[in-house]
Amino acid sequence: MPSKASKATKTSSQHENKGKTGKKLVIVESPAKGKTIAGYLGAGFEVEASYGHIRDLPQPSDLPAELKKTSVGKFAVDLDNDFEPYYVVPSDKKKRVAELKAALKGADELYLATDGDREGEAIAWHLLEVLKPKVPVYRLTFPEITKEAIQRAMNELRDVDMPMVDAQETRRVLDRLYGYEISPVLWRKVSRGLSAGRVQSVATRLVVERERERMAFRSASYWDVLGEFSTTESAQAFKAKLVAVDGARVATGRDFNDSGALTASKVAHLDQASATALADGLEQAEFAVRSVEHKPYTRRPAAPFTTSTLQQEAARKLRFSARVTMRVAQSLYENGYITYMRTDSVALSDQAISAARRQAAELYDPSFVPNAPRIYSNKSKNAQEAHEAIRPAGDSFRVPAQVARSLSSDEFKLYELIWKRTVASQMADAKGSTASVRLGAKSAEGRDAEFAASGTVITFQGFLAAYEEGKDEARQSDEANAADGGRLPNLAVADALQTESLEPQGHETSPPPRYTEASLVKTLEERGIGRPSTYAATISTIMDRGYVSQRGSALVPSWVAFSVVRLLEQHFENYVDYDFTAEMEEDLDRISRGEETGSHWLKLFYFGADDGSGLLPIVDNLGEIDAREINSVPIADGITLRVGKFGPYLEKPVPADAPEGTEPERANVPEDLAPDELTAEKAIELINTAAPEERVLGVDPESGHTVVAKNGRYGAYVTELIPEPSAEELANAPVEYYKNGKPKPPKKPVKAKPRTGSLFASMSVETVTLEEALQLMSLPRVLGADAEGVEITVQNGRFGPYLKKGTDSRSIGSEEEIFTITLEQALEIYSQPKQRGTRAAVPPLAEFGEDPTSGKKIVVKEGRFGPYITDGETNITVPRGTSIEELTRERAIELLADKRARGPVKRTSSRAKTSTKRKTAAKR
To answer: Which residues are catalytic?
Structure first.
């Protein structure tokens, strides 16, 4: 396999040939981007799309047989050869690669115009490796798809940046090593199908830790008094809040810890009685102003958007998920409306600054533009400033009204948000003044009470005329109840005040708010974990894996996530440590700058430095992991939550004096019950009200087997208990012999499959009888045969009772008819033409309005394999871990868009499979 170094300078010697006449081939990632670029390049250029990556690491199981037993076999990465990746062209990309090679044959020059970030650089390198061009090759990047930007880029051609490629390939191999080593541990100790990831595991830990804080939280109550006052000169009333009693500050929410204990000393902690008594005592008191303080107010505009701040603000103001934001932004970029949407930089180009200042002066007033341009710099950890901030494309911005007709609804909303933020970033500060007032009085009992109020008056709007930044949901505290922000009348010290009302107010401290997509993105960025361009995919992954679900906009972890995070914290501490993960990101940055090589860094990461710190030594020396302990969470005294194969359940141990054979008490945990809502009281209630898991109904007189009714994962059902083979049956089992004549160990007789039957909707475990159970287990019921001898049966299915004759199924009215319908009635039904769509329409489970792409209504329906989302053209199953109630319009649009991007599922015909098998056999 050729090394990256061999390709590092491949294009350098070819730049001298630039400018030759003939066809010039330009390769981009996406057709949409290519279509826009083609309109600016003009004649002589042919633009083709690679449709993303053309090579990737295969699954180890798909490696050639001769490689599976080598150092490449475990990860499709050569562990003994500097972690060299073994790349293949996936089957669905082979046709595209052939088309690109054909296009290259007639070209005199090749321009690799993939995105200018690490991933785009890696795609360009992969194209070089696969296409092996023999014509001059140029690396072409541009921050926006406009004619001016492309013309400038044509004068700034360069080679493929190999350190950037090295960083991207290192990240790809790192993620393969991380996931393929740690995920199998989760499969063995928690549940199959789970996965670990460098960023997704840390993001899941953040959400779980916040839920742990909420579970441990104990609220505290505190009281104060809200007063409404006015002056004799002004009818304008204003509100003020009690802040001190007898010189001691009144306790507020910040004075209590999460255990509900008061942590501040020398504060007045009022309860309902004392607050009410104080308010009553102040009814006739003479209030007066004690102090007035005026301060100038100045507010600066927010910096232009980066990837993460765009995701956060779109979530706050547009209710877009991170993935929807990135999908819409990608479309805007590819069609030439905004600059590149994957950036950590807040800087604007000189052209953009001029455009924003010019537009602000034209639309508002020259006084709204400061004398000097505003220059922004990054404060976030690990910021990469290869691109400028996200802004409207071009040297002159199009106002939203100019693009309204050419954009979809979501595209227009996001473009308008970006436009407003960019223009506002170059506008003047908002100015005003803030007044803070203290007023007080003596109560009838002689207690001194002091109230406070504040108000801000904006005298010059400045940037606020264009845009105001949104805020995340904050933890409820005193600020939420403060009497401030309103306009105050003109007040002076010693002014007498009239009391309009005094109202005692009670408050409860609240737990820390759950993460939303916006606040999780913000936290990941602040901690330097991952890259903003990957946050959308990370959040979607932890949702699709069932680690996290949404309740409104809040992210709620599942109990499986608790088990996963607990295992990782106990046995892979570094790999979910926030600082360690951020340091890995810094290391990748160093590789991208050429300060470190990926192979050397991967060697230290995987094998370690003789101190046992590498991933491999940790996995090899895990020792015994107690799966039961990992999957257990104490909830109440004697009640433990277990994460089982079929979901979470509560278990109460058997008392010491219970008869032998007594089973522990168990209760299923409702799916819609969030972890912090499973209090000790709720756990006891669930245990005490749990339906029996199993009820013995009696013995089948024909088989002699015990029949029981059970509550299962998919509902209540009845089944027979088939005993294990007896000693006599084992002794009489036929003897088999090896080739050498020695007897083989006796085989255990195959245990018969028990008969089962789902309970009807009208039945329950507590009420079903043995007779009913035997009837249910006898299904399907044979009614007889038609004139041609084809058997007709009646049975119960997921969508109700039905008749079956060969491949022809017909629905019948009710479950009870299963045992009463006759052959004659069935033949009458089959004598009628099969009607499709004549059943009463089942209303959709949810509706989300029109899809911005298809323009058709989005609904959620119940399907054969569970609920699914559809717009009538595209269908996608609702991801595991997402309930219908938690599904949002944005998430539905996002899932449909992803399904469209993947295209139709390719199915191989049985004939093709047979042909493939024959060819394989022939090769052997």
So the answer is: 340
